[in-house]
């Protein structure tokens, strides 16, 4: 079976965007010009541009035309759900480039955001913030906090390439037994958009995770913000037996 004409045109336009013929920030030619250039109908043009838009390469606005957003599809990370090891895999596969590391008590806002009881927010918590990337492309803006009993790891976190939970397990013998996770949607503010090389006001997925040991003590908490199209949760459901 031959490839539909609109998909062929999508590939052609994608290559021309990648080559720089249509640079980032420029407008694609109007539909009538594309129809004449490629000998296709407006319907074919619209289907091809729809695929480019779904790939994150262009943005179409009524009255303004179609703007080129990227020369290549945004990187995305697919994460299966269902086990502690599956959730830890993300930290192994996507390195966190730390931009800020400090030890201090939690502010009331931080304690509330990470669900830490007010009475436990004092002391020298280890707080880290940075951009998690894969193949040198940003996936998420991530904040991590570690309780005071593990805060002396501050001198080791910059050089650690795996999950911080595994560093804690290696140094202290405390392993993750349970993970609580909350998923929500929001819009990127200007600073988050700048750090993630995304658009201000773009939809984003926020994941809040809290990792506990077998005695229900908090080991670590993380808060990650992923721009739309860069992170996918994959879930499989089975009928109850």
Task: Describe the protein.
It is a single chain. The chain has 241 residues and is α+β, with helices and mostly antiparallel strands. It has two domains: 5-68, Arc Repressor Mutant, subunit A; 77-234, Chorismate lyase-like (Chorismate lyase), CATH 3.40.1410.10. It is built from eight helices and ten strands. The protein has a six-stranded antiparallel beta sheet with strand order 4-5-6-9-8-7. The protein has a two-stranded antiparallel ribbon with strand order 1-2. The protein has a two-stranded parallel ribbon with strand order 3-10. The longest helix is centred in the N-terminal third of the chain and has 15 residues, at 5-19. The chain is elongated, with a radius of gyration of 22 Å.
Describe the protein's topology:
Elements: H1 5-19, H2 31-38, H3 42-54, E1 58-61, E2 65-68, E3 77-80, H4 84-93, E4 95-104, H5 108-113, E5 125-134, E6 137-146, H6 154-157, H7 164-172, E7 178-187, H8 190-196, E8 203-212, E9 218-227, E10 231-234
Parallel strand pairs: 3-10
Antiparallel strand pairs: 1-2, 4-5, 5-6, 6-9, 7-8, 8-9
Helix pairs in contact: 1-3
Write out key terms for the chains shown.
Arc Repressor Mutant, subunit A; Chorismate lyase; 2 domains; 6-stranded antiparallel beta sheet; two-stranded antiparallel sheet; elongated
């Amino acid at each position: 079976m031959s490839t539909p004409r609109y998909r062929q045109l999508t590939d052609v336009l994608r290559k021309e965007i990648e080559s720089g013929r249509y640079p980032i920030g420029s407008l694609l030619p109007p539909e009538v010009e594309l129809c004449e250039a490629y000998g296709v109908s407006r319907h074919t043009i619209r289907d091809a541009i729809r695929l480019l838009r779904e790939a994150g390469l262009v943005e179409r606005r009524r009255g303004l035309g179609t703007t080129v957003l990227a020369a290549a599809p945004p990187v995305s990370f697919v994460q299966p759900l269902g086990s502690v090891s599956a959730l830890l895999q993300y930290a192994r596969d996507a390195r966190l480039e730390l931009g800020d590391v400090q030890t201090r008590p939690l502010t009331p806002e931080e304690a509330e955001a990470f669900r830490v009881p007010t009475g436990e927010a004092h002391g020298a918590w280890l707080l880290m913030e940075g951009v998690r990337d894969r193949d040198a492309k940003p996936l998420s803006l991530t904040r991590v906090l570690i309780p005071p009993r593990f805060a002396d790891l501050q001198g080791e976190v910059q050089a650690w390439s795996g999950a911080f939970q595994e560093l804690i397990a290696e140094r202290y013998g405390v392993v993750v037994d349970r993970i609580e996770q909350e998923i929500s949607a929001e819009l990127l503010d200007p600073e988050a958009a700048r750090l993630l090389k995304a658009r201000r006001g773009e939809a984003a997925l926020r994941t809040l995770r809290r990792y506990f040991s077998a005695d229900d003590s908090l080991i670590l908490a993380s808060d990650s913000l992923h721009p739309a199209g860069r992170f996918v949760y994959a879930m499989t459901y089975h009928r109850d037996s």
